[in-house]
Amino acid sequence: xxxTFSEGDIIVNPHEMVVRLNNTSRVTVQAETDALTLIGGxxxxxxxxxxxxWSIKLDNAEQLETLAQELGIAIEFY
Length: 78
What we know:
There is one protein chain. By secondary structure, this protein is mostly beta strands. It has one domain. It has one helix and eight strands; from the N terminus they run βββββββαβ. The chain has a four-stranded antiparallel beta sheet with strand order 1-2-3-4, covered by helices on one side. Strand 3 and strand 4 form a beta hairpin. Pfam families: DUF3389. This is DUF3389 domain-containing protein. It comes from Aliivibrio finisterrensis.
């Protein structure tokens, strides 16, 4: 499944997520589902594990909910 947001595209399946940013360097980050945290309210994807640490802010809560459903993980609120 592909979700487009203002900064690029997010491609997800039940096992992993790939984020491709639409900047001049065409940054791509990837994480397995087990390394992801979806943070509600702030609409942030956070990935931590195996020497990696990154986060991406989404445009809205609907995008985060779509990703949560596709990945099969809950949105956390702090």
